[in-house]
Amino acid sequence: MQTSPHLSNMLRALSLRRLSAHLQTARPLSTATQTSALQITQRCAERINELSRQRNKHVVLRVQVDGGGCSGFQYGFVLEDWDQQPQPSQLTDKHDILLEQDGAHVIVDDMSLAYVSGSKLDFVQELISSSFRVTENPNSEASCGCGVSFSPKT
Q: Which residue among 31, 59, 130, 134 is least crowded, i.e. fewest CB within 10 A of its CB?
């Protein structure tokens, strides 16, 4: 079913307002919680390390939560090439948190981490696609069939 541009814009604005409202009430996580809040699976770490070898750079996976998707919020994944191994002191945004598992590095901002805390970050290979995914999210009330968007618990 195709939606009109006007309806699409209204839905996007609603999603952004919902994200803004949630972000205003989200609490920052303690340092102890930050380091164990997002479990990076072995498959995910292996894939990030494989990409680093292929690109001959230090590949860092950035994970973020944005307004949008069919359930109101969506996971975003961006691969960043770094010239050297990332260190917390090199992060340019004070809200970014650097996580490491078996030499693989992941950056997540503190507000997004509040929505994925307790989840697993995995790399999934299927017959028709392969992708990074947030799985087993205890903060999600519902998610879409493809697993890209979710509705947070209130």
A: 31
pLDDT (0 to 100) of residue 153: 74
Classify burial at 46, counting beta carbons within 10 Å of its beta carbon; exposed 0-12, middle 13-18, buried 19 or more: middle
Q: What is the CATH number of domain 5-152?
A: 2.60.300.12
User: What type of residue is 112?
Assistant: S
Tell me how many helices (H) and strands (E) the chain has. 4, 9
Spell out the domain ranges in the chain: 5-152
Q: Tell me how far the alpha carbon of residue 102 is from its chain's centroid.
A: 19
Query: Which helix H or strand E contains 65, and what residues bound it?
Result: strand 58-67
pLDDT at residue 91 in the model:
87
Coil vs helix vs strand at 46: helix
Is residue 23 within 8 Å of 67, Cβ to Cβ?
Answer: no
DSSP 8-state symbol, 88: G
**Rg for the chain, CA atoms, rounded:** 16
CA dihedral 32, 24, 89, 137 (to 10 degrees): 50
> Which backbone phi and psi does 45 adopt, to 5 degrees?
-60, -45
